[in-house]
Amino acid sequence: MRIGFKSILILLFLLITTVTSFAQDLLKYVNPNIGTAHSRWFFYTPAAVPYGMAKLAPSTNGSYGNLQGWEAVGYDTRHNSIEGFVHFHEWQVGGISFMPTAGTLKTVPGELDKAGSGYRSTFDRKNEVAQPGYYSVILDDFNIKAELTATKRVGFHRYTFPKSNSSRIILSIGNVQGESGPITDAAVEMIDDVHFQGFVITYPKYVKTYDEGGRVAMYFYGALNKKPAEVGAISKDAAVANQKSAKGIGAGLYLNYQTSANESVEIKVGLSYASIANAKLNLETEAQQLTFASAKAAAQQEWKSELGKLNVSGKVEADKTKFYTGLYHALLGRGIASDVNGNFPRHDGSIGQLPKDAQGKFSYNFMNTDAIWGGFWNLTQLWALSYPSHYSDFVHTQLEIYKERGWFGDGIANSNFVSGVGTNFVGLAIAGAYQADIRDYDLNLAYKAVVGNELGYQNRLVGSGKMDTKSFISKGYVPYLDADKTDSTGSHFSGSHTLEYSYSAFAAAQLAKKMGKNEDYQKLIQLSDGWRLIFDQSLKLVRPKTADGKFIDQFNPLEAWRGFQEGNATQYTFYVPQNPQGLIQQIGKTTFNERLNNIFETSQKNAFGGGKTIDAFAGIQSLYNHGNQPNLHISWLFNYSAAPWLTQKWTRAICDEFYGTESIHGYGYGQDEDQGQLGSWYVMASLGLFDVKGLTDARPTIQIGSPMFDRSVVSLGNGKRLTIEAKNNSKSNIYVQSATWNGKVLSKAWLYRDELMKGGHLTLIMGNKPNKTWGVNIPPPSNQ
């Protein structure tokens, strides 16, 4: 059959229209307002691109600070006024707030619920638009429309004013924002009629605790599209008219305008962690030719492209909203910290330089990142599936830290150590990258760093975690200390540390085996059995031991914080991902399945965690707590215990009930969405794919669950395509009856990951009753 040129054009038009229509539909499914009660600092930053440095967002209480360093702060759906629009939102990083106002000059944001106490404004959420790459709101007190968008390193503002002789923009520089901690220095100045520049240096709580002496510096260079009628300076104590610069704590400027009705003032703000010159260069490189409208269009196109790597379709619209909002959060957190010229901030205050590849492009990006604690059960699996360049960036960043400091840093804020967990799973995450064929880095350096993370303790820096490594290596477990501390003799969190170090030792052991380091392998694989030394056979539970080898007394399996960090013995007993079969044998298969199933039966009544209590730690004394990292793999353990239908049942129930589509019920009720981890878990679980071992096996496997969607098409990171089809799928048809992989019968509830990554078609026939013969005969490999 011959097709004419005109027909080809029509077909191409229809294809482009279909693709564009699908991509446009994806933004419709992202709702940034989900889970915005008690949300973390990074969480609500709609005016950003994936992994951006510029993360612009409204702030309702960011200036209130963050006493403990990690609490929910920034934007809260229960608040009804906005105090400014802030540019930086990362773990332990925040600063530079702008606010359009009018009327009498006020130089402080004021109190949340006290009208007129400052320049903050009330707003109505009916007049608020939040989308990936764009935010707008009407500030009711001033009748001003504020709009935000961004490129990777440049923030854009458009403020549309009413007719007024007293329109104004406040540039608040030297003030606390979110997780920034105290300001140590700041400055801002107008350098000509329409350009301004400056910096702010902060001392966040977790830098002070884990990397004392470090600082977080943020630099900016801005361009206005209209000259202000007047510029004044703001200090901590006063405002001074006709002054174009301000320095120190509380530093800021106010820009006065005379505006006609519906007149807009646009601002472009280049950002950098390295220097003002780089902030200017970032602006000129990324945004010189862009208007607000074109920047918004580019940002949203980038979101469409990244979200579109995962294409899901099904009958339930709410599930698609959960899916793409979860994916949005996963792609939003952990932003780049390097500039367009490859500069990045180092801990010692100097500037690092990224290398270039053979094509003259920078080989990777340097990042800021929260701790990877638990990230191997969500983020790294998602990265390895479809976003491997970001996994590569993570590995390269940590190797840069290692080269400068001699240790991995887990959480990183401008090369400062900011991990508050103290266990440091960076080595495990890098071992997982290697096993997932992400290897575009110095393998020998990586190996040395990974093994050092597991076995090294001499002169170990506090912020690198694992301060009790010496005791773990010498005894095979971490001894319990009554005092709330961790040192070379043990830890107050000895139970969870023993389990975690056993797992990460396994990951390093598998890497050693792959690289032919047999002596290291033998040492590490022996340490991976450390969990057995604290397993109380009489209770069938893990239980901390003191240095003399005795189990602790007055033991309550549901007591949190005694022996277990952010959890309890009941939850942590299942923390043996490196050897599920070994744990099942210790407990007994029947007892294991009954106990774990009963845990989920009971936990379902409590929303799989902390119930409806709005508190990140509401679930740590419960039987199961999906709102925190230590539990995120255990619903998948039934695949190892010959009961895969229970994995199908409970992963679907968690997706349906723990996750919501409302502002208060989004990620449970506690909303402890650590830079995209809970969102990533939903994405992976709803696809029906997961790895209990976090990709750390010598030949990783992917376990199969119960897909939420009728059809999912995954663009794999290697360029291949994976299609997952769930036939007869519905809210009641949650159980796999049979399966095929590329047309061949699949009788196992798992595949080797390397087979999956070749691409193909996984078809699952679903039903409303468990098929207790499917997937039971050959469990996933447990102890490779």
TrEMBL record:
Q: Which UniProt keywords apply?
A: Calcium, Hydrolase
Q: Name one GO biological process term.
A: carbohydrate metabolic process
Report the GO terms under cellular component. Answer: cytosol
Give the Glycosyl hydrolase family 92 N-terminal domain ranges: 29-272
Highest taxon of source: Bacteria
Give the quaternary structure: Monomer.
In terms of SUPFAM superfamilies, this protein maps to:
Six-hairpin glycosidases
Q: Which residues form the Glycosyl hydrolase family domain?
A: 278-767
Cofactor(s) essential for the protein: Ca(2+)
- Single GO term (MF): carbohydrate binding
Which InterPro entries does this entry report, sorted A to Z?
6-hairpin_glycosidase_sf, GH-type_carb-bd, GH92_a_mannosidase_put, GH92_N, Glyco_hydro_92, PNGase
Pfam family for this entry, one: Glyco_hydro_92
Q: Can you say what this protein is called?
A: GH92 family glycosyl hydrolase
